[in-house]
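4.2 Preliminary Data

To establish feasibility before requesting continued support, the project team ran the inverse folding procedure on a target of 242 residues. The structure was first converted into the token representation described in Section 3, and no sequence information of any kind was made available to the design step. The complete token record follows.
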């Protein structure tokens, strides 16, 4: 289940009433998240959880990270990218269409999909819209130069997250990469947000999941200049081990 496109504040003690590991095993972990996002206004402020002000800073950081990827030896090409957990198309509109010939969007919330169509109607670079959760998304083989996954992984349990990454690997073209931009728990533990039914993982756990899925980290960069009180956000560039 994708998160749309939200930045999360540090979870307070009231949101820690359930064990985060056990909560992910409950089917309601997915259904509660879907119900939450159906009630969120399809605006930048809505999908960013009231933090519209960080949108431009986020895009600047992502732009720098993406340009660094293109400067690598044997970089991915710029033919096709998929925006996973695309929300209303904020990242697609402000970043991805500037670099790629075609952009696909994956988003489970129907109202967000419809808003993204409206926001992107003037662009000739939009390819496919997939209205489904990431736990159900399987890319075509040898299809994407970059898979962009931002602020959504907290809505997948550990098992589904590992399986999601494994399904992405065959969908990459030669030199293709996966970009993950995600909130990280600073406590060293998994933290549960009861309101939107999501978790924040510590970096150590996320790195283990990458490894188990058959991915290696080739870039790991901190997003800078976000307001104090938010989770640390890091950007990872991942390639298949083989």
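Position-by-position output of the design step:
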């Amino acid at each position: 289940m994708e998160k749309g496109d939200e930045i999360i504040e540090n979870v307070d003690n009231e949101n820690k009433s359930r064990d985060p590991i056990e909560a992910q095993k409950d089917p309601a972990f997915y259904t509660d998240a879907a119900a939450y996002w159906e009630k969120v206004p399809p605006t930048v402020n809505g999908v960013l959880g009231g933090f519209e002000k960080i949108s431009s800073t986020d895009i600047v950081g992502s732009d720098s990270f993406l340009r660094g990827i293109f400067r690598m030896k044997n970089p991915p090409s710029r033919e096709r990218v998929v925006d996973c957990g695309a929300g209303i198309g904020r990242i697609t509109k402000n970043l991805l269409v500037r670099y790629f010939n075609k952009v696909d969007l994956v988003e489970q919330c129907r109202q967000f999909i419809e808003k993204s169509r409206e926001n992107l109607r003037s662009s000739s670079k939009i390819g496919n819209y997939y209205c489904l959760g990431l736990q159900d998304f399987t890319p075509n083989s040898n299809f994407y130069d970059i898979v962009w996954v931002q602020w959504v992984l907290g809505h997948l349990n550990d098992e589904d997250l590992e399986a999601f990454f494994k399904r992405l690997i065959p969908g990459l073209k030669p030199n293709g990469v996966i970009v993950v931009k995600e909130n990280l728990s600073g406590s060293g533990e998994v933290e549960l947000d009861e309101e939107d039914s999501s978790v924040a993982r510590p970096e150590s756990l996320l790195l283990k999941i990458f490894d188990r899925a058959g991915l290696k980290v080739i870039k790991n960069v901190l997003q800078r200049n976000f307001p104090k009180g938010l989770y640390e956000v890091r950007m990872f560039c991942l390639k298949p081990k083989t």
